[in-house]
């Protein structure tokens, strides 16, 4: 963030007029990530169903420069044994199911922090993470959790996530910059979510999403992907099963 820039962060409930420019804001997410079926069904509904948990940042000119989505859900209830292996996908399913069934939430999960590309490198990710923590705490929650998608993992797609998470700098902080941001903010790495986001598709779909041929059986390294995508040419499908890293933030 430039020294002369004043950032204003509000919720979607406070400023619903910002939702249209929020969705128009460009991002750098890989196209295949945006075709996760659970995300496709639920992500766009978050501002309507959980407007108090959606944060929108605007700059001096009033334009949207960042967003942070979170959802409340019940973690400490019968049948849910800790943070789920299905990470991001399962959190969305639980949050919307709990809302529909009027189950009282006890935890907030971050599900997305996106910075407008021309504002990358200015510390806005840490600012939005801090705002999510503050927002959840102000709502009376004792914990914010996050199925973190480590930004540097795509450079090591064949390395198991557990081994990647264990990589640290001489100062003891994670090598991964996004995990490092969470730890600096007070987060504690909890566990691996091995099936956090699952994206199936036909070979034609994967060719459209990635520009790659997808004509060889087995793992395919896709730019931006955290792990190889499994390709089955004889059966005309490929599937990405991406792991995330659960991080806990105590708010008390």
From TrEMBL:
Gene Ontology molecular-function annotations: transferase activity
Which domain of life does this protein belong to? Bacteria
Write out the entry's keywords from A to Z: Transferase
Q: Entry's InterPro entries?
A: Acyl_CoA_acyltransferase
- Per its record, how is this protein called by name? GNAT superfamily N-acetyltransferase
Organism, per UniProt?
Streptomyces netropsis (Streptoverticillium netropsis)
Lineage, top ranks:
Bacteria, Bacillati, Actinomycetota, Actinomycetes, Kitasatosporales
